[in-house]
Structure formats: C-alpha cells, structure tokens
Amino acid sequence: MEKLLTKNIHLPDSHKIETYRATGGYKALAKALGEYSPEDIIDIVKRSGLRGRGGAGFPAGVKWSFMPKGTERPKYLICNADEGEPGTFKDRVILEKDPHQLLEGIIIASYAIGAQQAYLYIRGEFNLAIQRCEAAIREAYEHNFLGQNIMGKYYSLDILLPIGAGAYICGEETSLMESIEGKKGWPRIRPPFPANRGLFGCPTTINNVETLANVPHIIERGVEWYTSIGTDKNHGPKLYCVSGPVKRPGVYELPMGTPLPEIIFDHAGGLFEGRQLKGVIPGGSSTPILRPDEIQVNMDFDSLAKAGTMLGSAGIIVLDHTMCIVRSTLILANFYHHESCGQCTPCREGTGWLENILHHIEEGHGRPGDTDLLIEICDNIMGNAICPLGDAAAMAIGPAVKKYRDEFDYHLTNKQCLPETRK
Amino acid sequence: MLTSGAREKVEKLIACHPKKEAALLRVLHIVQQDQGYLSPETIASVADLMGMPAIKLYEVATFYTLYNKKPVGKYLIQVCANLSCSLMGADNLIRYLKDRLGVQVGETTPDNKFTLVTVQCLGSCGTAPMMQINDQYYEKLDEARIEQILASL
Ligand SMILES: Cc1cc2nc3c(=O)[nH]c(=O)nc-3n(C[C@H](O)[C@H](O)[C@H](O)COP(=O)(O)O)c2cc1C
Ligand code: SF4
Ligand code: FES
C-alpha cells in the first residue's frame, strides 16, 4: 500500500510547513473550505467509514453529526494526543514528524462541526512533540491556515495547546476535558455526552490524532478511493505499533485488516533468534491477550472483536517464552492501580487487590484459590465503574489468568516461575 | 519567589487563554521548571497570579505525577518499567542504575545530582528499553549507553 499518514516522515525537516506544502499539504483544506459546506464534509467522512483510532472505533462522521446545529453556545474540537496506552507510540510519530498533517485534519474537522476554537492536548512527557506542534501552529497562523478568515474564506479558528502532566486517565475523553479545565482528571458520568455538554459545558467533539490525520486524505482523494483500502467496514490506512523482542520493532503503516502474523513475522521481522512466541497483546495493554494458536486474525475492529479481543490503539506487544506471565500481568495490574483516578470503588480497590494478589503469587506466597479470586475480582470490576479504565484493567488481567492458568497454577504449587522464565 | 522571566511567561500564557483555568497545567509546568518543584509557598503565589483559590491548585498539583511536590536532584532519571520495556530488560537497567548511583528507586544521591524513579509507559515502546532524564528521551538503552549518557551530563 502507498504510504499516506507516514509518507513524509523520512523527509528532512518533515515537520516544517514548507516540506508539508511541497508535498501537497493544505490542498485538502483549500478544497474543504472552497468546495464543501460543513454538512458536505460530515457526509463525506461518514461515507468514508473512518473509524476512531483512539481505541473504540466509533465512526468519526457519525460522531461529528451529533453536534447540535444552530446553537448559540460555543463549540469545541479536541484532539486527543495524550497517547499513554502501554505499547502505543504511533501518535507521537505524527506529532513529531508531520504535525501539519494533523493540523490540517483539525482545521477541517473544526470547520465541519462549526468550532471556532480547537484544543490539542498533548501528554506532558512528549517535549519534542510539544515543541514541534507549537512551531507548526505558529507557521499555520503565519500562512493564514489558522486565525481570522482562513485562506480568505468566511471561517475562523484558533488552536490552543494544553499540556498534560503525567496522568494516563486524562486520555479518557471526559477526564481530558476536566484536565483542560484546569482540574484533576476525574472522568465524568455520562450522559450528558460531550456532543451536548463537553468542554466548559459546551458541545464538544473529541478525536484521536491518527483519526484526524486521516481526514485531509479523505477530502483530497474521495470516498471511493478511501474505502478501497482495508476490509469491509474497516477502511483506510492504519498505524500498527510493534514492541517486544522482535527484530524490527516500530510503527508500520498498513491497510486496516492486515493479518497479525504478517505484521509480526514479515514487517517486524519475527522474534529474536532462540525466542518462542508466548502470546500477543494486540491493541495496547488493555486488550485481552492472544495465545500463539489464536494469532491468525486480521487486525481490524470487527475481526479482533470476533476473536474476543480488541484493536484498541493497535499497540501490538509480543511476549516471548522468557517472560513470566504472572510478572507481565503484575506489571499491568500495577499500571492500572497506579493510574486509577480513585473515584469509584470497584476500580480503585479492585485494581489494588489484583496487584497485591499477583505480587504475592510472583513472590512465591500465593495461596490456593488465588487464580479464581483474580478472575472473580475482574468480573466484579467489569461494567461496574464510571469510565472504561476499570474494564480495561479487568480485560488486561482476567483473560491472561484464564488463558495461562497452567502457568499460574505452576507458580502457586512450586512457589516460583517456570524454569525458562527465571531471571 | 518566581524569577521575573517565569512570571512574564506565566502572565503571557494566562493572557492568551480565553478561560484562564485552561492555562493552569501549563502554568504549573513553567513554575516547576523555574523553581525545581512546587512548594506550598510557590503554589500560594501562583494561586494569587491566577486569581484562583490555592486549594484548587493543590488538588491539581497532587493529582498529576509530573509535578514534584518535593525537591528532586539536578537530573531526574525516569526509567520506564512498563511491559514493553520490561520485555527488553528494563529491570536489569534499573538494577544497574541503582548500583551505579548507590540509591534505591525514589531516592536522590547525597550530592543532589541524581534522582532515580521508575515511571509508566512513555510512548516509546518500539525503542525499548528507555528512560527520560529531565526533558530528554534516551532510547534503546544498554549498560554501555547508560555510561555514555551519564558521562555526558
Ligand atoms: C483510560 C483511557 C485512556 C485513553 N487514552 C486515550 C489516548 O491516550 N488517546 C486517545 O486518542 N484516546 C484515548 N482514549 C479513548 C478516548 O476516551 C476517546 O474515545 C478517543 O479519544 C476518541 O477519539 P476517536 O473517536 O477518534 O478514537 C482513552 C480511553 C480510556 C478509557
Ligand atoms: S473506573 Fe477507575 S479510572 Fe475510571 S472513573 Fe472509576 S476509579 Fe476513575
Ligand atoms: S513500555 Fe516503556 S515506553 Fe512504553
């Protein structure tokens, strides 16, 4: 497949506006403002089938169409660049290497939903991305792609750049809104939904970086072209992140629905010599792990759902035979416990119990019945919390315990790791 | 007291935000960079500048992990200990750094030069194992590379 989202990233000064324009950048914006009404754009994006790349795969055009029309209230677009899901490092590539592609998407999306102000929320650790985006915004103002009467048209937009401060939960959309409002990031109870009451109580649309970066391509080259990439109901290019003990870890742009084994063994070069595949977490730490006999699956939203897991953020984490499953599960339990905002009891307490029990098992102090207890705690968190972080923890841990029960039981009986995983 | 440079940056930032609360997280970043950490006195003076109650700032400062509530060393070494980095040997690096610096995780060297902490995923899993020192990412680490980096600081 021709590269789209990553076509410029290897060019020198790929982050500068001159480079972006020299490769056709901001033509889609001219087309959007010159030829289409906001309704047209929403319709095009709907027909393109573009699904959100932040994790849930919700159709972007449909989300935009929820924004109320004819209201006096200000409307906002938020770009979610909080990228914090373990195993995920794709948005950072766009932010650092091609920020104008993202800005063009943000401007077109803001025009479509009628926002006069957009917020690009970047996680606080991404210093280079922050610098690059700040500079890109400045350049875009200088070239009148932002500000008053963009490209001489009757549309104006300002972009602000809030910066996170190390809380994974702020990637959750309502938590992120609280964070922009200068508060601690406690997710809100829904309804009301952001399209009605979002940022500062006003209608808000929030999309992931990669989602918005797709938009200029769709506008420029049309729905038919876009839907020809990928599989049924899962269209367009996709950025897959591969990490773990493989020969060529990294971000790969491939059509939506590329088979998982092709990504791991062809593109990423397979595992290091002498390492055997133990399992694959296909879509970032929150998605249920696949055993080696389950990896024959296409990497799109629907195929992975059918396989009992999720595409999530497409952060493919490859686990090999030297990793103890109790330890990998403990690392994730520690993460969710650390990142739980503490607002609801099942998540706050449950993630802590999971971490404690796993810690005891890993240290050789596990008790009979601990595996069942872990599964029961996950079941009790699932569906009983305000935001999906609780569910995410349950999905990261429950299936791992169930699918690798033998190894958990080995640990409980022998009070130590499997021989090949001992450090 | 904030230096005049930091104070000016803060005032400029507040001025370009239609809603001043939306500037708060960035303001705290600037102040921390200026002061090294957020002491109660610092928070009180920022609250004055922002025209917000200090308690709101405390709530924010304590919720977010990037804000230091107590002093840290000149170099804050943050090693990612999440899954992809652990698969690539993060635990050995942490052990090496502990020995090399003579501190436990969470501690500062007696000369106040280094503070060693572990952090969650920094979005750099494809170049694991990795760490961040102050604002800078260091990726694909091994012991030799760590020695080089420490020598360059
Ligand atoms: C705990 C948690 C963390 C999340 N982190 C992110 C993130 O870092 N980036 C992101 O785009 N979406 C993240 N999401 C999903 C967002 O809530 C939201 O669904 C997404 O930004 C919508 O964009 P999309 O429709 O374009 O995918 C997270 C969700 C949860 C529950
Ligand atoms: S599920 Fe967890 S992170 Fe989400 S609101 Fe409840 S306590 Fe907070
Ligand atoms: S797991 Fe270490 S950077 Fe992602």
Q: How many strands appear in the DSSP assignment of chain A? A: 10
Mean pLDDT of chain B: 96
- The CATH homologous superfamily of the largest domain in chain B is named Glutaredoxin
Gross morphology of chain B is elongated
Describe the main β-sheet of chain B briefly: 4 strands, mixed
Tell me the CATH topology of the largest domain in chain A: Rossmann fold
| CA gyration radius of chain B, whole angstroms | 18 Å
Strand order of the largest sheet of chain A: 3-2-1-4
What is the domain tally of chain B? 2
Strand content of chain B: 5-15%
CATH class of the largest domain in chain B: Alpha Beta
- Oligomer type: heterodimer
The structure class of chain B reads alpha+beta
- Determine the CATH topology of the largest domain in chain B: Glutaredoxin
In CATH, what is the class of the largest domain in chain A? Answer: Alpha Beta
Series of H and E elements of chain B: HHHHEHHEEEH
Helix content of chain A: 40-55%
Q: Which chains make the largest contact? A: A-B, 57 and 43 residues
Low-confidence stretches of chain A: none
Description:
- The complex is a heterodimer of chains A (423) and B (153).
- With 423 residues, chain A is of the alpha/beta class.
- Chain A is 43% helix and 11% strand.
- Chain A is built from 17 helices and ten strands.
- In chain A, strands 3-2-1-4 form a four-stranded parallel beta sheet, sandwiched between helices. A four-stranded mixed beta sheet of chain A has the order 8-7-10-9, with helices on one face. Chain A has a two-stranded antiparallel sheet with strand order 5-6.
- Chain B is α+β, with helices and mostly antiparallel strands and 153 residues long.
- Chain B is built from seven helices and four strands.
- Chain B has helices at 4-15, 24-35, 40-50, 54-63, 83-87, 90-101, 143-152, and strands at residues 75-80, 114-119, 131-133, 136-138.
- Chain B has a four-stranded mixed beta sheet, with helices on one face.
- The model of chain B has no long low-confidence stretch (mean pLDDT 96).
- At the A-B interface, strand 7, strand 10 and helix 13 of A face helix 2, helix 4 and helix 5 of B.
- The complex binds flavin mononucleotide, iron/sulfur cluster (SF4) and FE2/S2 (inorganic) cluster.
- Iron/sulfur cluster is lined by residues 169, 187, 340-344, 347-348, 385-387, 389-390 of chain A.
- Flavin mononucleotide is lined by residues 52-56, 58, 60, 80, 82-85, 169, 171-173, 206-208, 211, 387-389, 392 of chain A.
